[in-house]
Write a structure and sequence with these properties.
The protein has three helices and five strands, in the order E-H-H-E-E-E-E-H. By secondary structure, the protein is of the alpha+beta class. It has one domain: Roll (Thiol Ester Dehydrase, Chain A). The chain has a five-stranded antiparallel sheet with strand order 1-3-4-5-2. Strand 4 and strand 5 form a beta hairpin. It is elongated. The two termini are 21 Å apart. The model has no long low-confidence stretch (mean pLDDT 92). Keywords: Hydrolase. This is Acyl-CoA thioesterase. It comes from Eiseniibacteriota bacterium. GO terms for molecular function: fatty acyl-CoA hydrolase activity. InterPro entries: 4-hydroxybenzoyl-CoA_TE, HotDog_dom_sf.
Length: 143
């Protein structure tokens, strides 16, 4: 799950606030919370970078999450999410996210998510226009 951002895929960062209820009985942030952070980062990136007309026409759903948990996050840690786009596959769009601890810059989790665009009116999968494809995917090296 490499997916490092390149010059065609600038990253977007989102500050994360750790809430008391994010911490489980083991004293660290529960794995399910990382999933929420991955989704929040993707949505924030879409909201900040997509054109208003694209936001009005499209909504995205996840078709697959892959998460590698590297290190625990404790209640007093400060973390942020860094996300960037990958390739547009047949129907799905790749997105990568890293959760990073501020104090030492260590990656605590890394995710690869496949997002499927839906028509906002019908909630059915749809083909996106060139502006969305260009902004939210990188060219495939196989093309």
């Amino acid at each position: 799950m490499d997916g490092r951002p390149g010059p065609d895929a600038p990253s977007y960062e989102l500050t994360i606030d750790i809430r008391d209820d994010d911490v489980d009985q083991l004293g660290h942030v529960n794995n399910v919370v990382y999933l929420r952070w991955v989704q929040e980062a993707a949505i924030a990136h879409w909201t900040s970078a997509a054109r208003p007309e694209d936001q009005a026409a499209l909504v995205w759903v996840v078709s697959r999450h892959e998460i590698d948990y590297k290190r625990p996050v404790m209640r007093d840690d400060s973390v942020f999410a860094r996300t960037w786009v990958g390739k547009a596959l047949e129907r799905d769009f790749e997105r990568y996210t890293e959760i990073i601890r501020r104090i030492d810059g260590k990656t605590v989790a890394r995710a690869r998510t496949l997002w499927c665009p839906l028509d906002r009116a019908t909630f059915r999968p749809t083909v996106v226009g060139d502006s969305v494809r260009k902004r939210f995917s990188v060219p495939s090296t196989e093309e």
